[in-house]
Write a structure and sequence with these properties.
alpha/beta, three-stranded antiparallel β-sheet
Length: 405
């Protein structure tokens, strides 16, 4: 209640994090626990309901323009547990799930008909599934122990239900992958006519299964992304960000207005992150299995008073707010609208970040278009480098000092 007191709560993003998965893929650095004991999801759900009631009492006037259930794998929960979450959210706030754009993540193993039917019945607009590859050797190299046919069968089931937007996640940079095989995977994905595709570069991050084998960098990634981009553009898709490609015949998502740069997010569940204009906060974070188990157990054991507290976060100074706006804008195809920045902060972005913007323009990573600066195709491809390059020195130092668990 205190941290949200002075912030606009009329068009927020509501996010619920489910920290469980059936398996832990070798590339995954998300906050998730694999193979949870049979009793753990119920204990987690009971604590989520307590937290939800506390947050709703503190912020009864919160209204939501977007909602999402992510993880982990939300559909690891039974359909009745998913229904219970939706019911409790709807009782806490006046959310019309059918008319408010919402998204749920699923997996090939858990996209069962009963779960899909439940998500369809509440009006879930977007379903996202992590396929990663359609080829068995590549799935094995990723540390994802599933048959390629499992993903195909899940996509068949999804398309038998009515979801306005299907997103398929694929990974490039896998050992043994070539531009030919990556384009073949994209071509296979288009058999299900997805409205979106997310193409993720394979990174070997610390404490992940692949990361424990030693960090590496493979120059083929740039070539794979270029080949995938060329193929998708020719197939009627547009590039929205480094990772996201959207079918051109898909119009803008209707629903209440929401701007990720300006509007906040309320995260529920251990592992969720929340954003006010001046504060980013979350619970403790871990990637390693022992750290995740410990944090989940501690969260479930919290008292109501503890669930109503903000435990960990970073306050955003005026400069950090400006940098956040800049970074979030430059990493999307719409780019930085200079007039919007001016209206928000009362100054010119090209003055506040003169040196950085000049370097990006000179390098051909940004282009000027009337009253906005937009990323070039090369700029989108380099997003994962541009974002951290724009960090302030205090944030850079805090990131380097953070103790990995």
């Amino acid at each position: 209640e205190e941290v949200w007191a002075e912030h606009d709560r009329s068009r927020l993003f509501l996010y619920v994090h489910v920290p469980f998965c059936a398996v832990r893929c070798g590339f995954c650095n998300l906050f998730t626990q694999k193979h949870p004991p049979a009793e753990l999801p119920d204990a987690w759900l009971a604590t989520l309901e307590r937290q939800l009631a506390i947050v709703a009492r503190a912020l009864p006037d919160a209204r939501f323009a977007r909602w999402a259930i992510g993880g982990g794998t939300p559909t690891l929960l039974e359909a009745k547990a998913l229904a219970r979450i939706v019911e409790r959210l709807g009782a806490a706030w006046p959310i019309d799930f059918a008319t408010t754009p919402g998204s749920v993540e699923t997996s090939p193993e858990t996209a069962t008909d009963d779960r899909l039917a439940l998500l369809e019945s509440i009006g879930t607009r977007r379903l996202s599934i992590g396929i990663q590859s359609f080829f068995a050797p590549e799935l094995q190299a990723l540390g994802r122990p599933q048959a390629a046919t499992l993903g195909e069968a899940a996509l068949d089931r999804i398309r038998r239900h009515r979801f306005a937007r299907l997103n398929i996640d694929l990974i490039y940079g896998i050992a043994g992958q070539t531009e030919t095989s990556f384009v073949a995977a994209l071509r296979r994905a288009l058999d299900w006519q997805p409205e979106e595709l997310y193409l993720y570069p394979l990174y070997q991050r610390p404490l992940t299964g692949l990361g424990l084998r030693g960090r590496s960098w493979d120059d083929q990634r740039a070539g794979l992304l270029a080949a995938g981009r060329e193929f998708l553009l020719a197939q009627g898709y547009r590039q929205v960000s480094m990772r996201m490609f959207e079918r051109i015949d898909e119009g803008e998502t209707s629903g209440p207005a929401y701007c990720c740069q300006a509007d906040g997010m309320i995260g529920l569940g251990v592992g969720a992150r929340s954003y006010t204009r001046t504060l980013h906060y979350s619970d403790a974070w871990a990637v390693g299995a022992a750290g995740v188990r410990s944090i989940v157990a501690d969260w479930i054991a919290r008292s109501d008073a503890q669930l109503g507290q903000v435990w960990y976060g970073i306050e955003l100074s005026d400069e950090e707010q400006r940098r956040r706006w800049l970074i979030q804008s430059l990493l999307q195809h719409e780019g930085l609208v200079l007039a919007d920045y001016r209206a928000r902060f009362g100054s010119e972005a090209e003055h506040d970040f003169a040196a950085e913007l000049r370097q990006l323009l000179d390098a051909g990573l940004l282009e000027r278009d009337a009253d906005r600066l937009i990323p070039s195709p090369q700029g989108l491809a380099w997003s994962d480098a541009i974002g951290p390059w724009l960090y302030s020195e205090p944030v850079r130092a805090a990131s380097q000092e953070f103790e990995l668990r």
